[in-house]
Amino acid sequence: MIGAGRWQQNARRAAPVLVFAVSVLGLSGCGEIDQKAKTEKIYSGKKDAEAYDNTKFAGDKSKWESAMVERSKTQNEYNRTDTKKPAAN
Amino acid sequence: MARMKFICDAERCIECNGCVTACKSEHEVPWGVNRRRVVTVNDGKVGERSISVACMHCTDAPCMAVCPVDCFYKTEEGVVLHDKDLCIGCGYCFYACPFGAPQFPQAGAFGLRGKMDKCTFCAGGPEVDNSAEEIKKYGRNRLSEGKLPACAEMCSTKALLGGDGEVIASIYQQRVKRRGKGEEVWGWAMAYNRKDAKSAAKQEVKA
């Protein structure tokens, strides 16, 4: 009976430690680990000029970007055709 | 500016292969190499769908990750390009690419592989823009001329959209709203619950 009492006492003492250890172990699964490959690939070829670095755009990036956006918008045929109803005469 | 992207609208693609022809013609792509091709799912059956596929210029491109000679680079606009002078034609990029984009011209007898060739988003390569050298190795550099990829601009039904990601996404969105279907193509519902994708997507839209 004495042995059982000691065991209970020990269990009571160990309980908070166990709870703490389990919660820490559980939380360890919540970490966000970077899953990207660690190998860094460095391009070792020739340097390419930017698309706007030419006589047409004269290195003006914003001019080239706005030209590309405008060109992209031409693919929307809803804008190219007049979708409004014709005015009644 | 957003990244340069392609979207192919499977509801509109009529498998005319105009994009394939435009690409081959524009860049004088050698025989046996197809930078772009049209894939048809459920061919000949009711509800068949076609989609035009080429290099998707991935954000985290697997071809770049596996290249043993590091011949790939990415432009500011997110276009994945490569230096043919460095390429050794090993074919690793072909195995890594989920779209089968890298192509290898036959460089001799017994199926000897040449240097890798792929869609450049009509952005050429690391040579002087629109020089004879660049045209010979990579084709025309339309982006430097303020033009979009030839395949997208030639598409007769405008199924294939190319250019600024935000702009083409808004064009596609407007289209889906007009025709009242197509939203099921995108999102979690399609990725994780294929059977009920359509109804789940409609619920998402309602919510």
Question: Which helices and strands, and how do they pair?
Answer:
The complex is a heterodimer of chains A (89) and B (207).
Chain A: H1 2-27, H2 61-73, H3 77-80
Chain B: E1 4-8, H1 18-27, E2 37-41, E3 49-53, H2 62-66, E4 72-74, E5 80-82, H3 92-96, H4 132-138, H5 150-154, E6 160-164, H6 165-179, H7 188-192, H8 197-206
Antiparallel strand pairs in B: 1-6, 2-3, 4-5
Write a brief structural summary.
The complex is a heterodimer of chains A (about 90) and B (about 210). Chain A is mainly α and about 90 residues long.
General description of the model:
The complex is a heterodimer of chains A (89) and B (207). Chain A is elongated. The longest helix of chain A is centred in the first third of the chain and has 26 residues. Chain A is mainly α and 89 residues long. Chain A contains 3 helices and no strands. Chain B is of the alpha+beta class. Chain B has one domain: Alpha-Beta Plaits (2-Layer Sandwich), CATH 3.30.70. Helices cover 30% and strands 13% of the residues of chain B. Chain B is built from 8 helices and 6 strands; from the N terminus they run E-H-E-E-H-E-E-H-H-H-E-H-H-H. In chain B, the strands form 3 sheets. In chain B, strands 1-6 form a two-stranded antiparallel ribbon. In chain B, strands 2-3 form a two-stranded antiparallel ribbon. A two-stranded antiparallel sheet of chain B has the order 4-5. In chain B, strand 2 and strand 3 form a beta hairpin. The chains are: A mainly alpha (89), B alpha+beta (207). At the A-B interface, helix 2 of A face strand 6 and helix 6 of B.
